[in-house]
Amino acid sequence: MSYDTSNIFAKILRGEIPCHKVYEDEHTLAFMDVMPQADGHALVIPKMPSRNLLDADPRALGAMMATVQKVAAAAKQAFGAEGVLIQQFNEAAAGQTVFHLHVHVMPRKTGVPLRPHTGAMADHAVLAEHAAKIRAALGA
Ligand code: 5GP
Fold first, then answer.
1. How do residues 87-122 score in pLDDT, each as one tens digit?
2. Is 41 among the catalytic positions?
3. Where do the domains of the chain lie?
4. Which atom of ligand 1 is nearest to the CA of 31?
5. Fold category of 8-138 in CATH
6. Residue of 17, 19, 47, 88 with fewest CB within 10 Å of its CB?
């Protein structure tokens, strides 16, 4: 399967649709998931086009995971979480719905269940507030 440049995260990278950004560097972008499974649910993507882990350049994977680590620590602190779930799907059979490589970062608290994977769209004011909390924890 090849990379399709019309996917929603490619549009975010091109600035064609907005996102609630939490972090950006030369190789990666992190922003809030619009259907968060947990408060503070962020997504980290490489700027280099790849459909998922299976076709990704290892350099893009390295840069992406370095950003995942930063965002995970910041989100854990920002939301007073006890842990952070890192999740990543490859192809539709494995649950992938957007075909630009991405990693989910979800702060977790004991006894607080995750919301459904394709659940309700969150309020944009809430997402903006959550993004600001993570940015503050990142020192941005
Ligand atoms: P996956 O492909 O790993 O199943 O998940 C894709 C994720 O992207 C979902 O958690 C979904 O909520 C999120 N998502 C889908 N469309 C958009 C969008 O337009 N903006 C943002 N920020 N997230 C999106």
1. 999 999 999 999 999 999 999 999 999 998 777 899
2. no
3. 8-138
4. 22
5. HIT family, subunit A (3.30.428)
6. 17
Look-up: residue for tokens 């979800």?
106
Residue 47 identity (one-letter amino acid): K
Residue pair 3/49 in contact (Cβ under 8 Å)? The answer is yes
Exposure on the CB side of residue 25, measured as CA atoms within 13 A: 15
- Which two three-digit tokens encode residue 96? 């992938």
pTM: 0.97
